[in-house]
Amino acid sequence: MPEHQTHTRPKAIAVWLIIAGAIGWWAAFSLTMERLHLLADPDAIASCDFSFLVQCSANLSSWQGSVFGFPNPILGLTGWVAPIVVGFAILAGARFARWFWWLFELGLTFAFVFVIWLISQSIFELMTLCPWCMVTWVVTIPTYYVVTLHILRSGILPAPDAVRRGADRLMGWVPLLAVVSYAIIAIIAQLRLDVLSTL
Predict the structure, then answer these.
(1) Are 60 and 35 in contact (CB under 8 A)?
(2) pLDDT tens, 23-74?
């Protein structure tokens, strides 16, 4: 594999990382504040509790809401800083080493898998839809797609030429891929929770 890489300063991706990071961080911050509010007053009603189906409290108070022994939003408060920093660094002219992109992709892969697990727990176990959680889902999914396709097309992650060309073509379809992903989640939620009948 030649050392020369294309797409070494993906400015559009940098802008997306900043926007997604800011949105994800705000969602995590909002959930953290709601969790602190509930800890201070267990009888309080969270501002994101709109109905039995659409609420944050059930998710935050469940064991799924503190998988690693602390509230999940704390992961978001720390984790979403990375895309923001990477985005601004790229716009400032930074070119990261291959190992850095690998670690960044590893972190995003963890976030993506964790979000998929949380979606399944929310729909099938808790039977609720947490508004701020859904905001996190909305930005995590395309961010994972964008970075994965970027490191494949640029040769940062070793792959056959056909895979690199395919990743390059798919990059322009990320918005559609994200929408299809959202649609699949919405259909599963509707089949399981009958969301439309509660609106």
Answers:
(1) yes
(2) 999 999 999 999 999 888 888 888 999 998 999 999 999 999 999 999 999 9
Q: What residues make up the domain containing 41?
A: 11-198
The total number of structural domains that make up the chain: 1
Is residue 2 in some structural domain?
Answer: no
Q: Taken in order 47, 51, 53, 58, is the CA torsion positive or negative?
A: positive
* Cα(95)–Cα(79) distance, integer angstroms: 21
| pTM of the complete model beyond 0.85 | yes
Alpha carbons 179 and 198: distance in angstroms, whole number = 23
- Give the integer Cα–Cα distance in Å for 119 and 134: 9
CATH assignment of the domain containing 160:
1.20.1440.130
